[in-house]
Amino acid sequence: MDDNRSQDHQPKRVVVCGGGIIGVCTAYFLAKKGAAVTLIERSSIAGAASGKAGAFLALHMCDDGPLSSLARASFGLHCSLAKELDGPRSYGYRPLTTLTISMGESEVPSKSPILPPWVDGQVKPGEIIGTTENTAQIHLGLFTQSVLAKAVTDYGVEVLTAVVENVQVEEESVVVKVGGGGVIGGDAVVLALGPWTSKVLGLSSKFKVHGKKVHSVVLEPKDGDAITPHALFATYYPAQNMGPVDPDFFPRPTRDVYICGPSVEVEIPDRPELVFPDPESIEMLKRVAGIVSSYLTNDNVTIKSEEAGLMPCTDDELPIMGEVPGMKRCYVASGHGYWGILFGPASGVAMAELVLDGHASVVDLDCFGPTRFVIKVTISEYVVIARISLRFMHVRFIVQF
């Protein structure tokens, strides 16, 4: 994306709310494009899901659907950013081979040539679904911090630690009210607060962003050099009479292995610090790790972290990006779901273009606009009103008869 800053015009003042990957990428590309940006984060940068996700990138795994162009554009931007920010050194960017496996306590270990040597447990190989040409990984927390550091140093982004309480749209500007009575003014605001986005006063009636809790563990093997860069999408069949579970394994350049489990929708707490892991889910992930590899059994690893994060999701599993209906100059970028880490850069570019140019060229945002929820609500309300009217007419007919 070109740097279109001009010395002849007063820069547009944009407030970005949220210090996760979507908010940080939006702030970065807005500032690079010439805006004067203030980023507001309530706790720490990448302190919620953006610091606890597996950070897997794939060029092709969203093909044949409405997310395809967003995924492909963003995969390319991740590659460009890795060159610009020295990604391999700064945040562990590297290509991966990706494969599927299935496993269970009764499975016989396989000698399949597609399995890396460290996958020596009770595993049945599936297929290779990604190569070093179309799948990669990053360390998400380090990526988000690296992008923000560049935005602050090179493009003057200001970072404010505060809780966003309300957004007011005025005739020619917006006002963001924060905890403690503070007020930040701007020409536009972008809300990128993850699952907390629709908690901003007045927005819950316009769209809904859910929170799905995803558990993860990070294990550091004693022989970390033996773990090659192979991502595993697994299906685990427990010995008990239970349904299958789908954990993902992502070895990282930091000589550890990130493992995450399935997601479950939960109530969104008041702040990210109140998202706690469930002990049984953590134990399941550690047990599965030992089934996959002898290098990952309890006796052969140091546990670096046991965490849970809230993944922002929507009812139709598409992100929400666009101007909030009825609120001029107030924009939203949230609900990116499982692929939010992949989508971060292209979402940032698209929001920067939308705010500053009036439209996005990097990707078509029509199917991601928040107006799709308003239309659904309007239709539902119309149906309810119609039913009430019919019932009233029926009662009147009976009484008159």
From TrEMBL:
One of its GO terms (cellular component) is cytoplasm. It comes from the Eukaryota. The keyword Cytoplasm does not apply. Residues 13-354 form the FAD dependent oxidoreductase domain. InterPro entries: FAD-dep_OxRdtase, FAD/NAD-bd_sf. The keyword Oxidoreductase applies. One of its GO terms (molecular function) is oxidoreductase activity. Keywords: Oxidoreductase. This is FAD dependent oxidoreductase domain-containing protein. It comes from Ambrosia artemisiifolia.
